[in-house]
Amino acid sequence: MTMDRLLHTHPQRRSGIAVWRQIAERLSEEIRNGNFAADGRLPSEGELAGRFGVNRHTLRQAVQSLQDEGLVRVERGRGMFVQHELLDYPLTRRTRFTENLQRQGLLPSQHLLTAHAEAASEKVARELRIETGERVLKIENLSEANGQPVSVMTAWYPAARFEGLLEMLQEGASTTAMLQRLGLEDYVRAESRVTSQMPSEETARLLKQPATRPLLCVASIDADLEGRPVKYGETLFCGDRVQLSVSMGDTR
User: Where do the TM regions start and end (predicted)?
Assistant: First the structure.
């Protein structure tokens, strides 16, 4: 059925099924068919009421049903949006963004936002076990799954150990591959600390979400097999698109 025909097809009031239920079923079908895949935004409440020839009370019953099923979410002042299926992001000894997504049949992509050398702040120095003011390499990436933004990650590496890393970024190789070329054969996640925080306006823009929606923040330390920190990272995940899972006793 074409969208044009859907726009002019009203529920049958004598079909034996409540009108709001018919509306909910039709919108559910359109959501599952990807009709709102472009940005996930549904038409406004008034537009949907007019489309189906019902009052707003009836339309709201249908929307509430879709919310209860986890198919849509309503954001005050912004409208109604398709509730995307949550991306499962495991936090294990070998947490790798690309591998995490590929195991779920998703296409990972990363976009470099910033990359430069700077003096280590007191916090970064403490996490990397180096002196405050020592030179570090700061890299910030926007990560996507199937083209949908899921996180913004900022990472700091000790420059003394990874000279040349910034230049390698232009080649598009994975972080693991670049570190191996610089002499780090393997590394593991030594620590992950999960908190929540509100996004800045810039982070909200990058993640295409309202600035009023909280983020999941993972502060992490990666270390070589001798226990020396090689990276300190802070990753901000979309709270409504990602669920973090912690694997206890992971041996990979």
Answer: none
